[in-house]
Fold these 3 entries.
Entry 1:
Amino acid sequence: MTTVPGRRSSTFTRLLRHGFTDPSAAEQLLDLDALASVRSDPVLLEALGATADPDLALRGLVRIVEAEAADERQVLLDTLVTAKPLRDRLLGVLGASEALGDHLARHPRDWQALVTYEAIDLHPGVAEFEQGLADAVDPDSLRVAYRRCLLTLAARDVCGTTDLAQTAAELADLATATLRAALAIARTAAPEDAAQCRLAVVAMGKCGGRELNYVSDVDVIFVGEARDGVDETKAMQAATRLAAHMMRICSETTAEGTIWEVDANLRPEGRNGPLVRTLSSHLAYYQRWAKTWEFQALLKARAVAGDPELGAEYVEAVSPLVWGAADRENFVPDVQKMRRRVVDNIPADRIERELKLGPGGLRDVEFAVQLLQLVHGRSDASLRSGSTLEALRALAEGGYVGRADAAQLDEAYRFLRSMEHRIQLYRMRRTHLVPEDEADLRRLGRSLGMRTDPVAELNKAWKRHASVVRRLHEKIFYRPLLDAVAQLAPAESRLSAKAAAHRLEALGYADPAAALRHLEALSSGVSRKAAIQRTLLPVLLGWFADSADPDAGLLGFRKVSDALGKTPWYLRLLRDEGAAAENLARVLSAGRLAPDLLMRAPEAVAILGDPEGLTPRTRAHLDQEVLAAVGRAGDAESAVAVVRGVRRRELFRTTAADLIGSYGTEDSPAEQDHGALVDRVGSAVTDLNAATIAGALRAAVRERWGDTLPTRFAVIGMGRFGGHELGYGSDADVLFVHQPREGVSDEEAGRAANAVVGEMRRLLQLPTADPPLLIDADLRPEGRTGPMARTLKSYEAYYRRWSLVWESQALLRAEPVAGDAELGRAFIELADPLRYPMEGLGEDAVREIRRLKARMESERMPRGADPTLHAKLGRGGLSDVEWTVQLMQMRHGWSEPGLRTTRTREALAAACAAGLIPAEDAETLDEAWVLATRVRNAVMLVRGRPGDTFPSEAREMTAVGRYLGYEPGHVGDMLDDYRRITRRARAVVEERFYGAAS
């Protein structure tokens, strides 16, 4: 073809119009002598343009024609232009699969397998595929025959003769025929082994469910029995050799490539178990040791090769175990673990391209369907299908899944599986990743019938279907529960009460009858409120089920909804503010403390929908609000009631932020810096309690003395209060210091100061709906026998004359928190020489501190407590770490300014920076201190009352584990980790506190 320079030929233009992306290269291919007889035939160009990749199809055709013997070429070309079925099939395959084009180039005569178009050819089964593989006598000939059969199967697929489900079933049937052929080759190679044993091959996974991919591991389980008169051990050895040989025949790469991997890792004990077991050995394992996921896998078990009677016996024997799995003790926690999407191992740059495991992927549909089958299939045999699509249809027909939801999931699953098939077909590689290359996306889109703008259309359709799956895969568990109780749409099939209870039990609800009552109360009727609840509840129920106490979550939601249901903003907040509903679900189902705080003033739920709502308020902000409230109040009791209400609201804000940060949400992962979480809680609760005490002080003074107390008055925070390390259940350890104003006698000032202290304590402990704040002044000079408040001079005199080393140690945490700021600073100036003595501590003082610590360990540990699990006084716990750090502060604080802090972690970091403790030891102590603090916070959050040890009740223990980042079923790991971390910390304490290290 010659054209005028600078002008494009008419062929170039036609090629461009027919979808070729490289018309110049295509022109050159058409000019080859091999295609001389057909290059001008418009039928050929039209057919090439109809393929997924016209350029690829043309290249593949040229390779086949050139590989054909000279006398056969014209037969191929004549048939190609005169027989539409062959033309569509051959070019369709060549345009979709480079790998099958390679096969045809190596075996050019295989194109003839695509010529026939008989009825039997449209939907072949195992028998037809066995016939196609009948001549295979070794691994190479089996591969060639397999690809020839695959060629016809792919042709039917790309031409639309078969739909997704039929294609997947044919791929499974071809795999069945291939396994049988491979086993026959193995038996022929070792007839003596074949004579000793019966061997059955049971397909699992997608092969077992007759929904196989183009390139997928074929999961199998082998069952063996000795033939009559043969020793069982020898028979199993023979069966194992046959099974292993069969696997190699399929899996190994030869000159003709590979077929697919045969994977037997679903067998009992996985890779560590024997490859072949007897039927009785299988059953013994399943009855005693099997996990829920193994029964889920067995749901698709199907005998496919070897001894058919033995295979059928196996399937029949395991079936009752599969359908009774939902009654097993660990079913619920196992399901909770399995329901969490396993995406941790997927690189971040690939997760959005993952068709199988990514959000809204194939696994979401498959898992949801299989879980519903396990729950309801025990009483409804119609659900016992290995096929995802067949099972989904049966679930919809039985009312276990809404028909509209099932139809959307069916459509989405078919589309995503079709994408997966076409991606794998191109190079016959096992992958679930959507390609990034523009040309690959164009070919993929065109293969799915998208021709106007294939890439844009493909991405749009893919995201739409993935979004449907993401939205529905959890909801399908819960929507039918609402339909069962909402008494709407009478024509719709719906769950029976028994089936609804089964489902709720399987999802972790301990009292399904109560749960159904709550659902009915929330969602029944035709009001707008009920309609919004029916929209919200399917998602909320899933979040509740993802927690340690779903029942508490649902009950709490009903209580909040009852309290706020008539307010116009509540349901709108949950519906329209994306994070609010999930945040509420996490808070309500994580333990008792946060819901208790919320129930006392449910309007605080608005905090959960505000983007800044979970950020702790600053001390200045709190003081401003508290003191303004006191100024407006009529008397001290009403003033402090408002102050305590502010404290309750802010405690709820802090607990909610802590829980959400620890659990994470669908859009934001859990906080990984646990030290930062602990510091935020400690600072927030400390500031809140300080502001509360400041408000109570102002209210007590105003009630009796007006604006001015006869004596200047300051509150000094001690212990965790002074250290900004308060937990949810901590008392406020304080000292009270005062200084008589000019002209006021010491006696009058003392009476006023002590009266203020008494009134503050009374006001903060009055019985109300808000939690009390307990003030503990036992660290004062002379302890409980000494006056509550002293003058600065009295403190100075006492410390100069009577102070013991432990009192100097206690002053390490002293920090003014409320009252007269100047007086507070004066007290700190008084304390500094005591807590940071010049030249450090003498050896006598060091010995005394060590003696006190040892005595505390032996005398204060509660009777019966496990010292390895006591967060405060136990081995490597808070006391161990804090005393070690405080000893360094008292020894070196005089010369190291960084050590002059009331905060444990800051002091430890400063000690490390000063070279007083190796970095590794400092990290060990810090890790143990943070963990022990989180354990105490977790116990308070879960139980609603303080505690220093792990709870004994199983559900509470699980909730503590969830807060600490452990999945259900891993409580043992949590305790092991706690013991390991604190044991290492104790070793550092032994050296740094009790030992010679300074």
Entry 2:
Amino acid sequence: MRYEPVTLRNAEDLKANLKTQLEKHNHIKLSDTEFKSILNHLDKGNVFDRAKRLRDKMELSRDDGTTFYLEFLNTEHWCQNQYQVTNQITQQGNYKNRYDITLLINGLPLVQIELKRRGLELKEAFNQINRYQRHSYGADNGLFQYIQIFVISNGVNTRYYANNRKQEFKQTFYWADQENNLITQLEDFTDSFLEKCHISKMICKYIVLHESDKVLMVLRPYQYYAVEAIIERVKDTDKNGYIWHTTGSGKTLTSFKAAQILTQIPKVHKVLFVVDRADLDYQTSKEFNYFSPNCVDTTDNTKQLVEQMAGDNPLIVTTIQKLNRAIKSQRHETAMEKLKDKRIVFIFDECHRSQFGETHKNIVKFFTKAQMFGFTGTPIFADNAASNEHGKRTTKDLFQECLHKYVITNAIADENVLKFSVEYWGKIKRKDGTLITEPKLDREFFENPDRISLIVDWIIANHNRKTHGRKFSAMLCASSVDTLITYYDTFKNKQKQGLHDLRVITIFTPGYNEEDQDANGLIGEPDFNISTDPSSRSHSRDKLNQFIADYNQMYQTQHSAKDSQAFYAYYKDIAKRMKDRDRENFQDQERADILLVVNMFLTGFDVKKLNTLYVDKNLKYHGLIQAYSRTNRILGELKSQGNIVCFRNLKDNTDQAVALFSDPNANEQIFIEPYEYYIEEFNKGLQELRAIATIPNDVNKLISEDDQVKFVKAFRNLIRLQNVSKSFTEFSFSDLNLDEQTFEDYKSKYLDIYDRTRSKPDDEKESLVEEVDFELELIQRDIKDDATQKDYQNQKASILELIGKEVQLRSKRDLLEKFIEERLPTLEPEEKVETVFQDFWTQERVEAIQQLCLEENLKVEAVNQMIADYKFSGKEPLRETVLSACNEKPKLLERKKIFARVVSKLLDIINKFDDDLGELGEEE
């Protein structure tokens, strides 16, 4: 690495070294007063604020009255910085922590490396960094909150990730070479990724400051190589090119970063980022506008685009529809003429869309120096090209050379997307148990209401299993608008009969006949044009209005389809509703369970909390891969695969699509194993568990931490396997070599160990068990539709038993029991349970805070402020903050004990009243 080694034992050494390095980097001598001013400047805001401050210069008022612009990081010439390496820095925050290896750039700790010995899980290093973030990174001017990249390694596996408190382990990445070969060994990773110029380049150019979510994001290796290839192409040639990165791999982030960097190349006049209107959602617009103010134009006004192109903004984000109008219309010819010979770079997102043939022709005809780059997860080859007025045009025809390739098998191997679980239900059972066999091409058969009714019955029976008790949403794609209408009406009628309470929503373009698109198996382009001509009224238009009225009633909105603008607003509201489910503060009453579509949302629509696609549509080639890929975004341990349920026999189509877009022999890499495999693996794992603890009570005899860790890992393996197995329709506990009650008893012992390790004071000796990730999200209850119990006492007993098993609710048991015992029986008919519960919860929280203030003689307003600060930043209060909250200043020898006691009680209140409350109102 050739870093200068330096010995820094504590925060004072770190600050003294920072002063020296900033002086060296800026060719300046700083007085103590000036350096104190710098420390005050640095010690502001959260990680995101500090990342911005790191990249800016400080206007330093010097002792002699002059002003100096102090640089913390040379982002333009990233190799021209000062590099040091140190290890074992000790930081005293709420608890004392000692960090493994720290890379310093210009004296600031920008890269932290946490090492574990070989054989230990990499996740243990990840969890340890999370503890550092809670316990000590914020201490002593918060210099460790300037870390940009974390590296975790156990020698044989090495990953990196950006400094983002909300991140989970699955958002850590391996580095790789240009051919997507993973670099996992620590020594090789150090030579390539941690080389001075490369790590600086990653920090300066390839970390994205995501303004919408206020988090840092670092590019993955394939994203890095794609952007580098585009930059090299623009600097050295005038040729076009395309990037083939599989669906779900983050193409929009890659193309955003490419556009951002290209605007800084002097010979580039403008960069146009071109998307389909359907993909220009609120979040994309917001991100681009943060980077280049007012660069996104979401109106239908072509004149506004023309004015932007004639103006000074180096980046313009527009839609493919408006771009076509601007360069074809004679009205704008004079204004556009000035740009004809300028060097303009066009970046097309999702360039497999059919309109790109026409757009490509128009651009080449008008701009003499245009350079075009396309991003696609599913290129158009000769095999899957559809004919139009321009003939059969492949992606290579339009964009020439593929500059970088990262296919679905690469993404699955790197754990950047999930595998698929595909079930084919081509044969539907009648009520008498006989099978309905699927004919090949019989539209009358597929649109038969009786067949659709049977499919809806299947979905109602299995939806909770597929979506883990509605913790995820699903989509259903139908072959035509008429079929979709039949589906919606069938769901609605069965709901009126009390057969389900699923929230079903839909959107489609009325009067738009999809028969031809279904015949070729490709996905048609979304159409937002709604005629306002009264003579154009149709059955499908009237149905759409009915369905939007249902939507308005369900979500208290006021949408309509009176014209194209109103219809597009409805489309965007559905997109936002589905995507917002990914957000931390999403309210469950806003969720949609199943979205019915024909073509809309089947390409370019990324939602992590969507895990199931029901297919009653002939899909082929890129249409099939695009649609399937709506389900396979990574999200925690609970989402183990994307579920595809085909109500048509698409097995051959699926195999052909996989062969075209990855490898003819890639099925095993792309699809999860059959049901029998997971049952067999579960039963093998059960033998290993019973070798450690033959029956649940034997867990009590596991005294040593090593034995407890063995049990935790063995049972965790079982809950992982059960999580996948339960998603199969045929799952039954009788296939496992233990009964459900014994499994629940083992689970209780598992949770007992978790509770014991988490209740220890953090300043005690580190626990081996605490390092293990318990993956508690896998331990959830299922919604059981037939579980309503009339007897109140039995219901109460079952609820309290459930609380003991529900991870998030164990710490709240006494309060929930109090609510059930004291308040629930007195509920008046007109009172809403949710409202009464919220009032009860708020009052109990107020009383708990008052009790804490009484016991510790604290100021109520100061305690409330500490809780609010913790919820905002995730940082425990500093000692000075706690002591200043005391009504009487504590004696010197008592301060340490008082501080630890108050922090512990504060965290108990937060854990009990504020954490994990989302699950409480989930069932309706």
Entry 3:
Amino acid sequence: MFYDHQQIEKKWQKYWEENQTYKTSNNTDKPKFYVLDMFPYPSGAGLHVGHPLGYIASDIYARYKRHQGFNVLHPVGYDSFGLPAEQYAIQTGQHPAITTEQNINRYEEQLKKIGFSFDWSREVRTSDASYYKWTQWIFIQLYHSWYNKNTDKAESIDSLIHHFEEKGTEGLNANQNDELNFTAEEWKNASEIDKEDILLNYRLAYRAETTVNWCPALGTVLANDEVKDGKSERGGFPVFQKKMMQWSMRISSYSERLLQGLNTLDWPQPLKDSQEYWIGKSQGAQVQFNVEGHDETVEVFTTRPDTIFGATFMVLAPENPLVETITTDAQKVEVDNYIEETSKKTERDRMSDVKNVSGAFTGSYAINPFSNEKMPIYISDYVLMGYGTGAVMAVPAHDERDHRFAKKFNLEIKKVVETEEDVQEKSFDSKDSVCVNSDFLNGLHYNEAKAKMISEIETKGIGHGTTNYRQRDAIFSRQRYWGEPVPIYYKDGMPYTLPTSALPLELPEVEKYLPTEDGDPPLGNAKEFAWDEANQKVVATDLIDDKTIFPLELSTMPGWAGSSWYFLRYMDPNDEETFVKKELADYWGQVDLYIGGSEHATGHLLYSRFWNMFLKDRGYISHDEPFQKLINQGMILGMSAFVYRIDGTNQYVSKNLAKDYQTQQIHVDVSLLKGTSDELDTEAFKAWRPDYAEAEFILEDGKYITDREVEKMSKSKYNVVNPDDICGEYGADGLRLYEMFLGPLEQSKPWNTQGLSGVYGFLKKFWNLYFNGDVFEVSDEEPTKAEYKVLHTLIKKVVYDIENFSFNTSVSSFMIAVNELQKIKCNKRNILEPLAIIISPYAPHICEELWSLLGHGTSIEFEQFPALNEDYLVEDEIEYPVSVNGKMKFKISLSAQLSAKEVEDLVISNEKMQQILEGKTPKKIIVVPHRIVNIVI
């Protein structure tokens, strides 16, 4: 029977949509299972065949769990704020909302063609005001919270105010910007502005001067992961380090919990390692060094206080405020020039550039508090202001970077850890040796020396033991248009949150999407964007009088804001009263399976864990971690095609003749190849671009053969394969099976369209099991043991594979089972019905159609997954190969129930064996049960 995949797939996609087959109820009687894909950003290019890989895997798992009787939440939505749509708006004037809507429609059309079992009724978009109303609401909760170290959680700012009213800062143990000291009386007597200023020091969402990656061409601040080699990832524009007033999120309060929480998660180890490194926990001491001729002190954090006697110079971050104070007139020009150069590097560039050494001498000296020796103070870009204190004590004998610095600037290198190595030539960093040249530490090992030195530092009153984290607070404002407005207005220069009744604060219309002439963010162009405090509404900007009508914040939130909590909104997407009802959050709980790319390790996955922990602290949800199990899918790589142009000509030479010429290799669009071959359609190539219109070709055997190479699939390499084309030719079920068949989910693998014919052939074979010629024919006759064995072997394998995410081996098992059933001409209902259920998570359309033909009026989706019966896998008979002196002589079929001794007796008494023995007694008989018999004579 002809397998018409196009008609079948259209029919069932229409059925699923009309019947809302995948709409998830909040029925709390069933056990729940929450399967989620990382939030897609809807780009203008649409999907290529690499994008659905993770979605297909999660969809198979979601369908499998439905077959097991779970209430499955498998939603979809769009992370729809983003820089590309804004850049397009700047270039064309088209509102980003229009571009985004068009892109989403394209994505949705493509996703529906592939047959995903998403609950489309729960779709969310971060750029919809009904969604970002709650992103703004969460921001307001963060603003009105502080982190109490005593209870180790976030609490309402009201409890902090109460503490100040009762005791001032006495006994306060909080995460803060600066350590403040005041009495309850001083707090009560402070003005409202002073009180607000003090509270900003503790709020979890706060405004402070921060060093940022500023891109003048884009007019915005960029996150570290949006900058590459000192340039913006989008557009390649120069990026500079600049101090600006910015909103930040106090994620540093959660560093220890984020670190410890990793132990509870089933995540890939490399991803956990990335987060652990990013958080960067280290234990050591905070120490103050006096500066000669100045009242200021330099405070450093060191993980090796045991080496303090070997500290021979100090290095400050170029942006450390002390630099300006302590730099001498003679060194000012050199220092200023160095600071200017450093501003062109991002923090990430500075951290990763470990080989190049540079710096400038400030002209001042610190005093080593233990050796009392003078230590020249330098600045260098390898010290970061955001980590520790923005200053390091340099111990060149025992730190590789300090050693390179000392060699470059000819500074003293003093050994304080015992080693035979010449520390003048190479640093020696070890915790296994003992201290030398270190006065009272001499002869002590690392742990003893570290503890003793911390005690001495505390006795001297110049510091204390402490734990430090590399992770810094996350900058939370962007100077761009297409993002969530920050729900803040300014009165007397201080920020105040809008009342929650005023949310959402909607993005205003603007005439242009660039910063204003005064350098304000694009929202500064809005005519209706001021806050009327008395009437609690947004009014015209020209009404601002700073008495009752005040300016609103002009920055917008970063791209990660909306994606830091979307997994919670899916639980209750249409609620207008709250971001998620507590009982629904308790029912759905953690995401049970989260699939997405590893590139989100230190961005989205940290921020969403932070927001989730915060919302738990404040009592809105009950679970600490958002994603229990996470899988990073690999990439599907493209098979690029190349032509060879002879240098200086418009002639193109075929691949196998190119070695005879001086040529340039040029990417060509894979759509210009004939069918699935490597042959170039030369006429299509000439029509592709004007500069190829006059192309001439040197052919081999009358054909132009392109060269092929496996590369990342991308538009720029012209190797993108559109899933729509694949669905058209091979069907969505063919695409789904092939993407899984390519190899293990976590690995990268090359795409090859020619390979689809194999899985398409399998689908036709599977389809025809149910037909006799053109007639649908399924027998109600009881299957044989052999038929049941094929079925239950498949059940056992597929259950194991799905639960271990080995989807590629399942597809192989389907092929084996269908081949075996075809060989024995099986058309029994008791085999073919469960077979359709087993294959349906992978190829849902064909299985729905077969299920319907089998006489069922409902979808196959919720049918119970077939149960394994191990009895069918027990062999009745075993065919034993019998070897004599290492050579196989004959085979004998024996009951599988026989003991080794019984097998031995039957083999020895066998007529063939008696002929071989010729009356001799065997020296040795080895029986491997159910496998083989070895006889030595």
